């Protein structure tokens, strides 16, 4: 089986990156992580990746005078790596429309809410303030609109009456660690594709439907 080449972009400890690394250890998994890049040179996830024998390279934003210059350097690294899929895993930097356009349809992200609800930061606190009784996470294709790309898969978690931001964050993060590998598998197998700004599914079995929450 020819595995899809995956590059992961992080800014911090990379817990979702670690979940993807563990999933990729399965010989039957259709993807392999070939590189990890970070806009933060001290991101703890870089050392985690190296400990698994994965190339890990910082591309610090502070070393560049503008976002355009930083994105050019990041794009050069990605072009060298030649990934089939790019996974954003806690990459805390907005990308320009030009940059996203170069990788559109091949870049995915995980966000801690049931999009299109609660885009952006502080989603857990905002859910609690809203009085919502359900919460969750979403894996989506990346487009120029922040957290606005076509949804690949979602996972739902309850909001309990005694939840704090910390307990809710932990519950959703645990779900993220399960959902992201499943969604990447769907993309790597070509079962979920971005076409004309929307999502197209093909070849889904019953297990896929149940696992990915597609229907």
TrEMBL record:
Residues 4-184 form the Formyl transferase N-terminal domain. It comes from the Bacteria. (6R)-10-formyltetrahydrofolate binds at residues 67, 109. Keywords: Purine biosynthesis, Transferase. N(1)-(5-phospho-beta-D-ribosyl)glycinamide binds at residues 14-16. The keyword rRNA processing does not apply. The record marks 147 as: Raises pKa of active site His. Catalyzes the transfer of a formyl group from 10-formyltetrahydrofolate to 5-phospho-ribosyl-glycinamide (GAR), producing 5-phospho-ribosyl-N-formylglycinamide (FGAR) and tetrahydrofolate. This is Phosphoribosylglycinamide formyltransferase. It comes from Phyllobacterium phragmitis.
